[in-house]
């Protein structure tokens, strides 16, 4: 009887360490698995347990939670496929201490277990965490503030980069009764996740649980980069603009602001803002100048803007025709409306940043421009619109017509550039040049004049060509002669300054001509040598016949043959 009682006591004492092995004979302790097992009591008196997934575990894995009550031999266990489980109040002994652990069951009938924790459910309520937490990032620092709970408690903080969940946590101690902390030496281009919890100590009758994850996005420092743009005419006077862009670390971005601004925009406070989640936008615009500002945003604010200027339209099938009659520094603009909108919007200026606008509400299509600069190229656009208040006209206007004019034309103040002489022969040469810059024309360029002088100083006008021509072949030149070429542009007001003279020299022989001449000489010499050899051979033969007649062969003599036949036999 006594031996039986001792055996029972021994089994009871060793049950907590052997029971797992009885149920899972191949289960072993995994020392590297810091599963952060936490169990705490909710308001409903249920016990909730959470833990981190096992390392290197497959996506689908079964967990078993074991609960060993003090002085109770039977194990309590529950299976789950998620890293959390709730034990109902009816299965709890509120005043008894319990040892709790997690086992991971693999498909190949093996398992591992994590570290044990001990608690008493009646003392397992969640400790209070700081409230009103305010965290933000300034360059490479995290600045965090919070309100202290009613009962002062010492806390600790941990953080990691938000880019990936595999990033290791960094633990930061917090001084007692502190209400703010600054974490330095961080990556200024990364966002971070922060958590708080209290530090467990004797007499603290609650469980220290990590708070919810607090995302601290980094301030967006890089502006979006335009990666694609396309402009398409969709109807006379309207066009579509498709823009796509790229950003750095898009995971820290909540969305994008697209501000469409008409140029000029007389109402500076009027802004057409579009908020998007995608990195592309399709706009429907008139032929007026437009500026598109694109920026990213998150909880920390807005990134710098990328500015895209919609390019000039080359549309020629606009519905109307604009006529301009210059009058010195003034100009009268007239047009014939195709229909009667509420108003016309007239834009004019010498460039995108020098545009002015005027709303014309009179039904007659005319407008007078004054204080214009001579020798400046002006662009004028007339748009029809049914909105005439002080706002931008992006959604309402349709371009009626576009034209260009000079209030007063001048002559070009410079000649073309990059004048080169190519393909020089004995009697010709090709002259090429780059057109005169628009700002140097001072009027509508009508064409170019090409002139040249020879070594005697006599000047010749080779030709006048239209403004779209950028090359001309000079012909009728003298061989082996030095020439100098000059080119000038001309407008309706006259001829402008010529280029610096470009010298070149014609060839003495055209390509292949000298080689042909030398080949002819060579063959002539060969012919002479061969002919001389034949002549000399014939002359030598005749001299030989005349001076040295041929001697007959004695063997062929009949006398010798007769003598041979009469010799007696010995």
Automatic annotation (TrEMBL):
Bilayer-crossing regions: 517-540
Predominant subcellular localization, coarse grouping: membrane
Signal peptide start and end residues: 1-19
Keyword annotations: Glycoprotein, Membrane, Receptor, Repeat, Signal, Transmembrane, Transmembrane helix
Keyword Methyltransferase: no
Family from the record: Belongs to the type I cytokine receptor family. Type 2 subfamily.
PROSITE patterns, per the entry: FN3
Gene of this entry: LOC116501165
Protein name as annotated: Interleukin-31 receptor subunit alpha-like
Compartment(s): Membrane
Record domain Fibronectin type-III: where: 129-225, 415-509
One Gene Ontology term, aspect cellular component: plasma membrane
Membrane topology: Single-pass type I membrane protein
Keyword Lipid metabolism: no
């Amino acid at each position: 009887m006594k031996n039986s009682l001792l055996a029972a006591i021994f089994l009871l004492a060793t049950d907590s360490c052997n029971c797992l092995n009885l149920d899972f004979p191949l289960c072993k302790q995994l020392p590297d698995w810091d599963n952060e097992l936490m169990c705490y009591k909710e308001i409903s008196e249920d016990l909730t347990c959470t833990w981190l997934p096992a390392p290197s575990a497959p996506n689908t894995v079964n967990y078993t939670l074991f609960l060993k009550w003090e002085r109770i031999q039977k194990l309590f266990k529950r299976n789950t496929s998620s890293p959390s489980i709730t034990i109902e109040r009816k299965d709890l002994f509120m005043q008894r201490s319990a040892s709790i652990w997690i086992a991971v069951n693999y498909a190949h009938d093996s398992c591992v277990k994590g570290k044990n924790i001990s608690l008493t459910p009646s003392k397992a309520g969640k400790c209070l965490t700081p409230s009103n937490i305010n965290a933000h990032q300034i360059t490479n620092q995290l600045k965090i503030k919070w309100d202290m709970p009613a009962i002062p408690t010492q806390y600790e903080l941990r953080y990691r980069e938000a880019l990936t969940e595999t990033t290791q946590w960094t633990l930061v101690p917090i001084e007692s009764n502190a209400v703010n902390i600054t974490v330095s030496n961080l990556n200024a281009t990364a966002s971070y996740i922060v958590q708080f919890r209290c530090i467990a100590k004797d007499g603290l009758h609650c469980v220290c649980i990590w708070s919810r994850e607090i995302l601290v996005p980094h301030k967006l420092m890089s502006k979006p980069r335009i990666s694609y743009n396309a402009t398409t005419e969709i109807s006379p006077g309207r066009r579509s603009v498709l823009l796509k862009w790229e950003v750095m670390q898009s995971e820290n971005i909540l969305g994008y602001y697209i501000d469409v601004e008409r140029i000029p925009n007389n109402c500076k406070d009027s802004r057409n803002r579009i908020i998007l989640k995608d990195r592309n936008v399709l706009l429907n615009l008139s032929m007026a100048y437009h500026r598109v500002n694109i920026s990213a945003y998150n909880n920390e604010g807005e990134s710098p803007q990328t500015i895209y200027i919609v390019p000039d339209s080359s549309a020629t099938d606009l519905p109307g025709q604009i006529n301009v009659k210059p009058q010195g520094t003034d100009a009268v603009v007239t047009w014939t409306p195709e229909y009667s909108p509420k108003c016309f919007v007239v834009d004019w200026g010498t460039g995108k940043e020098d545009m002015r606008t005027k709303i014309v509400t009179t039904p007659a299509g005319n407008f007078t421009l004054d204080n214009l600069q001579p020798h400046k190229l002006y662009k004028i656009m007339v748009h029809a619109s049914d909105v005439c208040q002080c706002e931008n006209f992006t959604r309402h206007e349709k371009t009626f017509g576009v034209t260009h004019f000079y209030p007063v034309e001048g002559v070009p103040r410079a000649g073309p550039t990059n004048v080169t002489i190519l393909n020089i022969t004995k009697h010709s040469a090709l002259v090429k040049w780059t057109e005169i810059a628009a700002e140097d024309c001072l009027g509508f360029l009508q064409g170019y004049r090409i002139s040249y002088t020879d070594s005697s100083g006599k000047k010749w006008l080779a030709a006048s060509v239209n403004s779209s021509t950028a090359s001309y072949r000079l012909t009728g030149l003298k061989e082996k002669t030095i020439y100098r070429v000059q080119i000038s542009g001309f407008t309706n007001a006259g001829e402008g300054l010529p280029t610096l003279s470009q010298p070149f020299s014609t060839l003495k022989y055209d390509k292949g001509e000298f080689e042909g001449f030398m080949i002819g000489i060579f063959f002539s010499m060969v012919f002479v040598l061969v002919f001389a050899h034949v002549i000399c051979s014939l002359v030598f033969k005749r001299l030989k016949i005349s001076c040295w007649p041929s001697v007959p062969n004695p063997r062929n003599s009949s006398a010798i043959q007769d003598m041979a036949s009469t010799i007696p036999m010995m």
